[in-house]
Design brief:
Blueprint: H1 3-6, H2 8-24, H3 36-49, E1 60-65, H4 68-76, E2 85-89, E3 92-96, H5 98-102, E4 109-110, H6 111-117, E5 122-125, H7 130-146, E6 150-153, E7 157-161, H8 163-172, H9 175-179, E8 186-187, H10 198-221, E9 225-230, H11 233-240, E10 248-250, H12 256-261, H13 274-282, H14 288-293, H15 296-303, H16 305-315, E11 331-341, H17 344-365, E12 368-378, E13 387-393, H18 396-404, H19 410-424, E14 433-444, H20 454-458, H21 464-468, H22 475-478
Helix pairs in contact: 2-3, 7-10, 8-10, 15-16, 17-19
This protein binds a DNA duplex (9 and 7 nucleotides) through strand 4, helix 13, strand 11 and strand 13.
Length: 482
Amino acid sequence: VEPEEAGGGDEEADATRAMERAEAGAPGGWPGALEPDELDDLAWFHDELEPAGSSSCRVIVHVDLDCFYAQVEMISNPELKDKPLGVQQKYFVVTCNYEARKLGVKKLMSVRDAKEKCPQLVLVNGEDLTRYREMSYKVTELLEEFNPVVERLGFDENFVDLTEMVEKRLEQLQSDELSALTVSGHVYNNQPVNPRDTLHVRLLVGSQIAAEMREAMYQQLGLTGCAGVASNKLLAKLVSGVFKPNQQTVLLPESSQDLIHSLNHIKEMPGIGYKTSKRLEALGISSVRDLQTFSSKILEKELGISVAQRIQKLSFGEDDSPVTPSGPPQSFSEEDSFKKCSSEVEAKTKIEELLASLLNRVCQDGRKPYTVRLTLRQYSSGKQCNRESRQCPVPPHVIQKLAAGNYDVMTPMVDILMKLFRNMVNVKMPFHLTLLSVCFCNLKSLNTAKKGTIDYYLTPSLSTTSHAGKRSFKMKDCHMED
DNA sequence: TGGGGTTAT
DNA sequence: ATAACCC
């Protein structure tokens, strides 16, 4: 099928119809079951669908640091390097190095269990994330040097869109060099590379760039990690974990069905979380194939069209979500959990501590928070994950003080946060909190002009001329606030 | 379970 | 403001 002619949309409609057709004759069990030969047709359909128009096929890398917090701690204190090391937050070992893993320590194991399994385990406290956060952004910045299109996922994972870089490298190559290209790292399934297949060649160049990225991370930052190269984010992420520590894997399109079917449960599919997997299980869906073959109509009724269509595409290994550059953070927050906080004074003290750290961070960032939020967790025996929050604007005079620096901004902020607190907690009644969190969000450069707007080009400090210019004006000087 | 983050509704 | 997702 030529995508240019009938239009790609019709192919998709055909695929959907093929599925519904197959569903109509579904052989018992639950609605939507397909015969094995029909399944192959379906997989074939989806295989052909995604790369449609090979010029639009992407090369994505997922970079995943090995036991990140533990690595940072081992760099801070090299004596820890050859010992089993765990990073502790409260009563849990949140991550550990490979020495410790060999001895049976697992992520998010309680300190008690971990010590029982491994009495020699060395523990360091990792409740203050400052050094991890700093190292995390160094990694992202290093990757941004290869290509600015880097999307962060947590502190230790990044996606990079390599499509353009790969194209440029291929343009530079002579034909004799082209035939001599080799893959860097593993090929998923040990699938043979076809040097005449343009998709293979592009992914292979992607694997070379991935190797260069990992080498740069090690040489410049001393960090090791894994990488996965594939045609979309989902597959790149899944394949990055295939060979584990400090190795990389490329996925060729012919093996994508094998990769997704290597998952033992839909919950392992990135994008399908706790809630959705429970709802799917209630529908009798537990494997990737169950989800592939389930009636789209019924799934849409149950989960809503948006979630249904997205996760069913995921089940086929399809993911058209772009690598979205993360840029600077959208929010800053600090939280603390504890066994019990039951007085207003106690809460105020904790809030002051969180706020003090946050103000330092916000100050260093340079942008100003226009919204504050207080979140808390009340003790309750049964339910899990019951947090509530209240938020409000940061008063303009406080934003001004933040901008000017040096003025006391603690006092007015604590007052605001305590109002939010009393809005959630009736302080005249007994209460029992187990977590407090303060968040600054809605961050703006003091300068409110946005890229692409008239204001942007009329603002000397932002327009291109002033980057090179000797004078830099501030908005205030221009009386533009009005 | 901790101490973070994101986007969608 | 909450609910889902990610690490």
